[in-house]
Design brief:
Layout lengths: L17 H22 L4 H16 L13 H80 L5 H31 L5 E3 L1 H11 L1 H6 L3 E5 L7 E3 L1 H20 L6 E9 L3 E7 L7 H4 L17 H11 L4 E5 L5 E8 L1 H7 L1
Parallel strand pairs: 2-4
Antiparallel strand pairs: 1-3, 4-5, 5-7, 6-7
Helix pairs in contact: 1-2, 2-3, 3-4, 3-7, 5-7, 7-9
The structure holds adenosine-5'-diphosphate.
Length: about 350
């Protein structure tokens, strides 16, 4: 190309002006790139690009040693340093990408673990209750059968029957004590209470359930108040309550036709309380079940334990709040609970 300056008279020699027509523009470009990276440095990769640019700048003078020619000592030195510097960028790039993927994987696994931990807290309490209650309940049923047999005889044995009923009453009190001790355990956790943003907890719980919500094509409608004062509560227990109510709502809606809408809302209540409502458009609760909804072991699900709502109520009551049910209009259920705000608790102490 006649318009471009000639920089190589033959295959190995460079012209004497080579440093000005090639070396200087490359050095200038490297300096500009270095400055841009210096001011806009954001990642480790940028830092290593700067290292490579510095190496590139250092490479330029050896091109003239011992003379500006190909296959000279300087020329070979430059090739080697080029190889090293480009390898550095490649290794750093690979390291950065691996670290990014590792971070992503950690986040996904952490999310799964968090969800399991929350569900496990409920499962663990449910399993404890089921285990502790089984013995007195079985004893009550057996003793009641024996009591009937004593009364069914042609000459009823009233003394043995009375003894059987006394044992049933004692077992009943024992079962009550088990429930009370679990409630006390929840109460003791008051030492772990922290200030919590209810809206954030709701978002967290919905996030953990998003796969199920998507799978069952449930539309989520969140109405965070936005300006609510923080509440004082045990974070894991409170999130478990919200999660449980959401999961029950999903269960109630997944077999119904028509719009499936889950509405979760937070608002101030009676001055210094916060109220959270979880409403669904599911099957709703029939009149005859309303009174036993919160009873331990009440369930209408084939795989249910019937402990979720009673544990939720125990948790909310342990936080000095209330949890109740109301029918949703036109169909479905609304579960609402209240909690004390940080301000009301500090005013009360
Ligand atoms: P489980 O989910 O193991 O059955 P729960 O104590 O959480 O235990 O719920 C008890 C019962 O209350 C459920 O079996 C179901 O019949 C009823 N229930 C709870 N939440 C809802 C809801 N949102 N809609 C309709 N029924 C519900």
């Amino acid at each position: 190309m006649p318009i471009l300056p000639r920089i190589m008279p033959d295959e190995s020699q460079f012209v004497p002006e080579w440093p000005y027509v090639v070396g200087a523009p490359i050095a200038l470009l490297c300096l500009i790139a270095l400055l841009v990276l210096w001011f806009r440095r954001r990642s480790i990769l940028d830092l290593f690009l700067m290292v490579v640019l510095c190496a590139y700048l250092i490479e330029i003078p050896p091109h003239y040693y011992p003379s500006p020619a190909r296959f000279s000592t300087g020329w070979y030195a430059v090739r080697v340093t080029s190889l090293i510097s480009s390898s550095i960028v490649l290794v750093v790039l690979l390291y950065e990408i691996t670290a990014l993927y590792r971070g992503l994987l950690d986040a996904v696994l952490r999310e799964g673990r968090e969800r399991d931990a929350r569900l496990m807290t409920g499962d663990a309490v449910a399993a404890t209750v089921a285990h502790e209650m089984r013995q007195p309940l079985t004893a009550m049923v057996t003793t009641a059968d024996a009591g009937f047999r004593f009364l069914d005889r042609s000459v009823p044995n009233l003394d043995r029957a009375k003894e059987a009923f006394r044992r049933i009453a004692a077992d009943g009190h024992r079962a009550g004590a088990v429930v009370e001790s679990i409630r006390m355990n929840l109460r003791i956790d008051a030492r772990n209470w922290t200030s919590l943003d209810v809206d954030e907890l709701i978002r967290g719980a919905l996030d953990l359930e998003r796969r199920d919500l998507k799978k069952h094509q449930i539309l989520v409608h969140i109405e965070p108040h936005g300006q609510l004062p923080e509440v004082r509560a045990n974070q894991v227990q409170l999130q478990q309550v919200i999660l449980n109510l959401i999961m029950n709502a999903v269960d109630a809606m997944m077999s119904t036709d028509g719009p499936r809408i889950l509405s979760v809302r937070s608002e101030p209540y009676e001055g210094d309380l916060v109220m959270v409502s979880v409403a669904d458009t599911g099957s709703g609760i029939s009149d005859q079940n309303v009174d036993r909804l919160f009873n331990p072991l009440f369930t209408t699900k084939s795989d249910g334990m019937g402990m979720g709502l009673s544990i939720c109520r125990a948790i909310i009551e342990a936080h000095n709040g209330r949890l109740w049910f109301a029918p949703n209009i036109p169909r479905g259920a609304v579960f609402q609970f209240t909690l004390h705000t940080n301000n009301s608790l500090s005013a009360g102490t």
